[in-house]
């Protein structure tokens, strides 16, 4: 095990050395972070041979990021490279509500943000027109008309550790995820 731990120690130091005032340094650190997270999941999968449930922000588990300059390649992209179709990216959308976020990607305090119902033209506005309030859909089996809609980038709510609403980022849901869970409204986590 001693040799296997060395790359993780080096990655930890490289990530800790990020200069938060330098966008290129932050991008390099985030790239390293997503690669390390993917490597750890793939390692666990190889070691156990079983299924693994990965839970992280949409921007990590999906194949595309709403911030491609900061996240040029996502954890989900690395996992698709390593595991092929065995990796299924599940994304979440919501049409309004509240959640906790920070004002800076590294550090800062958790703050409650409330967003209004999604407006016309946003991914979530259309998804919220379905008669079910909360549902999931396998995007891989979508018919051609739906696939064309899903493969077009549109404004979307992106609630990660930082939330930047103006302008909202864009994302093509069908290119970012295999399965989508849509929630009508969300509510922020409560501190225990």
Which descriptors would you attach to this protein?
alpha+beta, 192 residues, 3-stranded mixed β-sheet, globular
Task: Describe this protein's structure.
The protein has seven helices and seven strands. Helices cover 36% and strands 15% of the residues. With 192 residues, the chain is of the alpha+beta class. It has helices at 2-16, 23-48, 58-61, 75-83, 123-127, 144-150, 173-176, and strands at 90-94, 97-101, 111-115, 135-138, 154-155, 170-171, 179-183. The protein is globular, with a radius of gyration of 18 Å. It has a three-stranded mixed beta sheet with strand order 1-7-4. Strands 2-3 form a two-stranded antiparallel sheet. Strands 5-6 form a two-stranded antiparallel ribbon.
- Helix coverage percent: 25-40%
| Strand neighbour order, sheet with most strands | 1-7-4
> Mean of the pLDDT scores?
87
Number of strands: 7
Radius of gyration: 18 Å
Strand count, sense and barrel status of the largest sheet are:
3 strands, mixed
Span of the ends, CA to CA: 36 Å
> What fraction strand?
5-15%
Uncertain spans: none
Q: What shape does the CA trace take?
A: globular
Structural category = alpha+beta
Number of helices: 7
What is the structure about, briefly put?
With 192 residues, the chain is an alpha+beta fold.
Outline the fold blueprint.
Layout: H1 2-16, H2 23-48, H3 58-61, H4 75-83, E1 90-94, E2 97-101, E3 111-115, H5 123-127, E4 135-138, H6 144-150, E5 154-155, E6 170-171, H7 173-176, E7 179-183
Parallel strand pairs: 1-7
Antiparallel strand pairs: 2-3, 4-7, 5-6
């Amino acid at each position: 095990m001693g040799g296997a731990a060395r790359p993780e120690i080096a990655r930890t130091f490289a990530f800790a050395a990020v200069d938060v005032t330098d966008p290129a340094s932050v991008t390099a650190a985030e790239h390293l972070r997503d690669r390390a997270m993917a490597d750890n999941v793939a390692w666990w999968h190889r070691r156990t041979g079983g299924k693994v449930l990965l839970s992280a922000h949409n921007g990590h588990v999906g194949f595309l990021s709403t911030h491609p300059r900061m996240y040029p390649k996502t954890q989900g992209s690395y996992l698709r490279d390593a595991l092929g179709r065995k990796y299924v990216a599940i994304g979440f959308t919501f049409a309004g509500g509240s959640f906790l976020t920070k004002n800076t990607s590294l550090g800062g305090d958790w703050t409650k943000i409330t967003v209004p119902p999604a407006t016309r033209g946003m991914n979530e506005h259309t998804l919220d027109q379905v008669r079910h309030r909360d549902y999931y859909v396998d995007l891989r089996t979508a018919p051609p008309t739906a696939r064309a809609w899903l493969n077009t980038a549109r404004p979307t709510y992106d609630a990660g550790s930082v939330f930047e609403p103006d302008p909202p980022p864009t994302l093509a849901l069908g290119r970012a995820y295999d399965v989508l869970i849509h929630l009508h409204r969300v509510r922020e986590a409560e501190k225990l």
